[in-house]
Each structure stands twice: as C-alpha cells, then as structure tokens.
C-alpha cells in the first residue's frame, strides 16, 4: 500500500476542518460509509492479503447470534447479525482476477456476496458448499481456527466438525487455519479508513477536554465517578457507543501508593476531586466500526495557581520521552517482544521507569495483531508478542512512566494512551498526543 500519511496525503488529512459533534453522520449516512469502506477493502485490500498468506479460498461460517468476529466485519451495515447459518466464501481465481464473493446461504448478503445456494434444488447446505469447493478446486481451504489468537478462532466446534465431515465425504482437501489471514484482515487499515479514523480520535480528545473542564468538574463537589457517568452520557448524546466502561482516577499528595493490580483489575473508588489533584481518564468510543482508546491527565489548580507544578510537568515529559523511545523502535518484521525489550532497555538507561502495554486497535478495541507488552508481562508476551509488525496497522500506544515526586514523597504514574498509525514513514499519531495537562480551575 502506498505511503499515505506523509507529504501531500498528510497535508490533506490533517487540513480537514475540525470534526466536532455536528459532523457525526446520521445512521443512514453511516451505513453508506461503512458499506463503501467494506466494498473497497474486499476489492482492493483482501486480494493482497490472501496472496501474501498463500490462501486461495477462505470460508467464514456463523450461525445467527453466535457470529465469528471476523465474519461480523464482512457483513454490510444493514446486517446486524448472521441469518440462520451464513457461509461466506472468498475465492481467489488468480491471474489478477477479482476475488469471488459467494454466500452459501439462504439469502444474498446485500450486494457484497452473491447468493450461491438453492435450498430447493439442494437441501443440504454443507453439500452445496462442498460442491462449490469441488467446482473451484482451491489449493487451500482456510477457516478461522486458532489456538492463541481469539479473534482468529471464530468457527465453532460444531460448525468445524460438520464442515470437515461433509468435506471428507466428497473431497480430499484438508481444512487449514486462516490464522495469519484473519489477523491480517483485522489489523490492516485501508486508505479509505485512514481518511476517517482521525475524525474519531479528534472527537475523543474533544470529549476528554470537556470532561476535564469546569463545565463538568467542580472541585470539592464533583467525584471521579460523576465524571465517569458524564462520559457515558456524553457518548450516548453523541449517538455513539462506548466499547468499555470508562474510568476516572486521581493521584494526590497522600500516603496512598499506586497499585498496578488495583488500577487495572479492580477499578477505582469514587473520590471527591480537590484542588491539587492529578486526574486520569481511560476512555474509548466506537464509530463507523472503528474504535478509540485514549488516556489523558488533568491537573486541578490550587488557589493562585495558573499552571501545573513543574514537578508534575517533568513527570509528563518523562512519559512523552518514553513514547518517543518506544515508537522509534517500530520496524516492519520486528516482533512486539523485540520492540518491548529494546524500548525498556533504552528508557531505563535514560533514568525512566517504564511500563509498556501497547495493543493493536481497529475493528476491536483490543484488536488482533502484534502485542507489545502487557502491564503484568514486561518481560514479553508469548506467541502474541512474537507476531511481527506489518505496515498499515494502527495501535493504541499505551504505557506509563513512574516518577518520584519529592514534594509528595511518593512515586506517581503518568499513564498515556494515544492512537497511532504505522507505515513506511514510521509511527504517526492520528490526532497528536498530550504534552500539556488539561487545567481545571479551583473555583
């Protein structure tokens, strides 16, 4: 795929008018956009991925309300689920011909997949699928079966057994795992998607800025839980969805120390926000089938203050430096564990105390692809961390840097998370990153 976030392409995308709440599309217009993106991906992206992974037939199978997560990404906007048993076949005839999109199902799947099963003529759906395979003569028939990648393991045990049994009756072809193809489909962002993804990220930044303002926070009155539920209501008002329950927490000059397990598993108790507090939020939304996942900080000014204290700004700079070290180590073909190790070593050599837990993002918040650390696996992540980086993929650059604050006599964590895109030009944030605290006045 051509490099599209540098040069003229970068200027075009970044010079778009401010997105804002009023630019959110109606449901009808969203459906049009989703279908345009999907058709473009099937026409222009999928052939490259299938050929890269050596798969000439990919079969997606789901029954209604028990959908394979990959199959859900191939359904048109007006299909909110599979219908009865939906079998989608993607076949590459080779020689530069377009991918054939067939639905061995009771219904055609809109205009995206052509109906290729006549139940009246051939009542058994599996036999119809096998007949199609016999006609097309693929070298490999791949299904979404994976031991280690949940999003690539969408075929149920029953569907796999029945498909395999029907295939063995008439054909010697063996089913193979589509693991790498499924991951590639989910993790690779198209040019059309990358024209709209920054809009969602910008909107998320706007929502966080509003949440961390005196419009929402009244120090001495508002609690962290109040801000959490304001975020939930705000997403609803925008006619969007939150893909996880947001969190708002605080650090302050007290005896309480940061607890990783508590922060990442138990959540935080509601506390009244006071002047001098350092606030943090973790917040994400879904729009046009893409997801955001963002973490930022705010400082509540004390009476007479006009800016955050220098010791907190220094802590933020440490976290920004950790981001720079980390993203500079992204290189195509390098594994997540390699990037993690290199980045931690460099940061520690510079006196930074790092914790890195970055994940792919796109159709899912914690998406398929290269895992680059987990908060409790800083020595590397088996299998998922060994998966190599590919171009045209998006990540939540999620990490924290710990800094000892003498004025508070304790160590604090600056926890940041920003969406970024990785291509030939390197890692580019989709809507910048936080380098200054949001400031909340004390009155």
Question: How would you briefly describe this protein structure?
Answer:
With 443 residues, the protein is α+β, with helices and mostly antiparallel strands.
What does it look like?
The protein is an alpha+beta fold and 443 residues long. The protein folds into two domains: 122 residues, no CATH class; 251 residues, Creatinase/methionine aminopeptidase superfamily (Creatine Amidinohydrolase). It is built from eleven helices and 17 strands. A hairpin with a 2-residue loop joins strand 9 and strand 10. Helix 2 crosses helix 6, helix 4 crosses helix 5 and helix 10 crosses helix 11. The termini are far apart. The N terminus is likely disordered.
Helix tally equals 11
Q: Helix/strand-derived class?
A: alpha+beta
Tell me the CATH superfamily of the largest domain. Answer: Creatinase/methionine aminopeptidase superfamily
Radius of gyration: 24 Å
* Mean pLDDT, all residues: 91
Please report the distance between the alpha carbons of the first and last residues. 52 Å
Order of helices and strands: HHEHEEEHEHEHHHEHEEEEHHEEEEEE
Question: What topology does this entry show?
Answer:
Layout: H1 7-14, H2 27-53, E1 57-63, H3 69-74, E2 85-91, E3 100-103, E4 114-115, H4 125-136, E5 141-143, H5 157-170, E6 175-177, H6 179-187, H7 191-211, H8 224-237, E7 247-251, H9 260-266, E8 278-283, E9 286-287, E10 290-291, E11 294-300, H10 310-328, H11 336-349, E12 353-356, E13 359-360, E14 393-405, E15 410-423, E16 426-429, E17 438-440
Parallel strand pairs: 1-5, 3-4, 5-6, 11-17
Antiparallel strand pairs: 1-2, 2-3, 7-8, 8-11, 9-10, 12-14, 13-14, 14-15, 15-16
Helix pairs in contact: 2-6, 4-5, 10-11
């Amino acid at each position: 795929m051509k490099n599209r976030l540098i040069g003229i392409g970068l200027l075009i995308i970044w010079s778009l008018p401010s997105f804002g709440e009023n630019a959110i599309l109606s449901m009808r217009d969203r459906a049009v956009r989703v279908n345009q993106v999907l058709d473009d991906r099937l026409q222009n992206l999928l052939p490259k991925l299938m050929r890269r992974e050596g798969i000439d037939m990919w079969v997606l199978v789901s029954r209604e309300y028990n959908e394979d997560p990959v199959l859900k990404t191939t359904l048109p906007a007006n299909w909110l689920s599979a219908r009865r048993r939906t079998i989608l076949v993607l076949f590459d005839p080779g020689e530069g011909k377009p991918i054939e999109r067939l639905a061995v199902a009771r219904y055609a799947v809109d205009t995206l997949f052509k109906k290729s099963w006549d139940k009246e003529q051939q009542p058994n759906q599996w036999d119809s699928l096998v007949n199609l395979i016999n006609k097309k003569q693929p070298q490999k028939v791949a299904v979404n079966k994976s031991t280690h990648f949940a999003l690539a393991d969408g075929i149920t045990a029953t569907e796999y057994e029945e498909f395999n049994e029907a295939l063995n009756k008439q054909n010697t072809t063996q089913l193979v795992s589509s693991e790498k193809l499924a991951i590639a489909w989910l993790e690779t962002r198209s040019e059309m998607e990358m024209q709209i993804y920054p809009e969602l990220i910008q909107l998320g930044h706007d929502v966080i800025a509003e949440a961390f303002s005196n419009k929402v926070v009244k120090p001495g009155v508002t609690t962290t839980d109040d801000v959490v539920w304001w975020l939930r209501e705000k997403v609803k008002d925008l006619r969007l969805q939150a893909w996880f329950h947001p969190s708002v927490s605080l650090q302050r000059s007290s005896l309480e120390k940061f607890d990783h397990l508590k922060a990442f598993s138990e959540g935080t108790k509601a506390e009244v926000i006071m002047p001098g507090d350092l606030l943090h939020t973790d917040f994400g939304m879904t729009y046009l089938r893409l997801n955001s996942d963002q973490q930022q900080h705010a400082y509540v000014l004390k009476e007479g203050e006009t800016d955050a204290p220098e010791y907190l700004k220094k802590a933020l700079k440490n976290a920004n430096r950790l981001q720079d070290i980390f993203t500079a180590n992204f290189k195509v073909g390098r594994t997540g564990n390699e990037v993690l190790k290199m980045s931690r070593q460099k940061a520690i050599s510079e006196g930074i105390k790092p914790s890195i837990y970055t994940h792919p993002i796109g159709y899912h918040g914690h998406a398929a692809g290269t895992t680059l650390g987990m908060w409790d696996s800083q020595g590397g992540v088996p299998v998922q961390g060994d998966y190599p980086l590919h171009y045209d993929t998006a990540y939540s650059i999620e990490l924290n840097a710990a800094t000892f604050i003498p004025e508070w006599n304790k160590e604090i964590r600056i926890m940041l998370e920003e969406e970024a895109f990785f291509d030939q030009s390197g890692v580019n944030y989709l809507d910048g990153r936080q380098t200054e605290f949001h400031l909340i006045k004390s009155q």
